Prior knowledge:
Layout lengths: L2 E10 L2 E11 L2 E7 L2 E8 L4 H11 L9 E7 L10 E6 L7 H4 L35 H4 L2 H5 L4 H6 L3 E7 L4 E7 L2 H14 L2 H4 L5 E5 L5 H10 L3 E4 L5 H10 L2 E4 L7 E4 L7 H7 L3
Parallel strand pairs: 3-6, 9-10, 10-11
Antiparallel strand pairs: 1-2, 3-4, 5-6, 7-8, 7-9, 11-12
Amino acid sequence: MFSTSVSILRWQSAKVAEAIADELAVEEPLEIRVNGRSVAVTMRTPGYDRELAAGFLFTEGVIRSADDLLDLLVCRDLPDGQQGNIIDAQVRRELAIDFDRLTRHVFGTSSCGLCGKATLDSVFQSTPPVDSDATFDPAVVTTLPRRIQAMQPGFDSTGGLHASALFNNEGQLRVIREDVGRHNALDKVIGHALLAGDMNKSPLRDTMLLVSGRVSFELVQKALVAGIPLIAGIGAPSSLAVECAQRGGQTLVGFLRADRMNVYAGAKRLGLAAMAELEGVP
């Protein structure tokens, strides 16, 4: 359930025009546990919670592959209204987990997945640059926003959900997920790929990631962990997102439209090597 209906008064032309029903994006907490121990609480839109938990644990380095994950148990023995808001990930007992490092995630809001992290340095993980020699056609990249327009029912209803979508290098959609938190939407996409076995059978090294809003550092970092070489956003990237993409050997695109885009990193992967050299874009 991604939306709920509420009664509102619509003000228009200096007067209350009408009383109407309005759809709001649902936001509820999800507690993620590992072998019974709580490691995170994130505010999310219910749906695809197993993918969200799997993607979160993978991008945070708790698990390295689907083989590390034995099961994802949805806790339903909870008070009314809270059923399903806890997921307990059963991982291999011999897996070394630094629970102290994960305590920085005790609470994360839907707008900021980095809340509670003490220092900027603590978020840089020991992740190698992407292992990909894939190239992408700018003409295909600019078609991505159009390709997801009819595939965001949550946004159409509420106007309050972010989307992340994964495409192959020909622009064919592999998966799209929505959530009130942009980092949750991406974790759901990565979790889908992990649980479907795509990380093993068809690595993400030839894929493109489209996010519906601005591109934050955490989105680029999560894409780096998943080995995604190209990240495109409808909005602007942050300075740290650009720095992370440069360090990770990724291509980063912002302000993506049907006829234009800004390339902040990895221009050579788009066949723009000569232009990149002139403009100083890595």
